[in-house]
Amino acid sequence: MSCFFVVLIREEGNEMAKNDFFVLAYKILGYLYVCMKEGEAVDSEFISPENLKINVQYWIAVLKALSDEELIKGVRFAETLGKSYSANLSKAEITMKGIEYLEENSLISKAREFLKEAKDIAVEIIG
Questions:
Q1: What whole-number distance in Å separates Cα of residue 56 and Cα of residue 14?
Q2: Strands 14-15 and 10-11, bridge-based pairing
Q3: Per-domain residue ranges for the chain?
């Protein structure tokens, strides 16, 4: 059994681009967090560039950024011919900093929705 994670991200009523950096980061971090909580091994196919519908170079860039910011660990990068890279996710894990990132973004979304609703109510009262 592999861990299962689904996310729909919306910003101010509009669905963000599925290949937006922050959407991809959230999906990868969320998946790794679910795997950690369920004690399941990471299935790298689930967060592969093919399943995320992005090119390999962009996928590597996202993973490198998450690793450089210490949001994930255990990803092994290898340079192949030229400047092309590959990534091995077999030992990938989310870090405490990565979990905090997920939590903060969740709280920001909730705060944004609250403020939007408060604004709508104020407009109705004043209007």
A1: 27
A2: antiparallel
A3: 16-126
Q: What is the DSSP string of 11-60?
A: ETTEEPPTT-HHHHHHHHHHHHHHHHHHTPPP-TTTTSHHHHT--HHHHH
Do 68 and 43 form a contact (C-beta atoms < 8 A)? no
50 vs 3: which has the higher pLDDT: 50
pLDDT of 25-70, one tens digit each?
A: 999 999 999 999 999 999 999 999 999 999 999 999 999 999 999 9
> 63, 87 in Cβ contact below 8 A?
yes
Q: Are 19 and 76 in contact (CB under 8 A)?
A: no
Of 33 and 18, which is predicted with more confidence? 33
Where do we find the tokens 């679910």? 34
Which pTM was predicted? 0.73
CATH architecture of 16-126: Orthogonal Bundle (1.10)
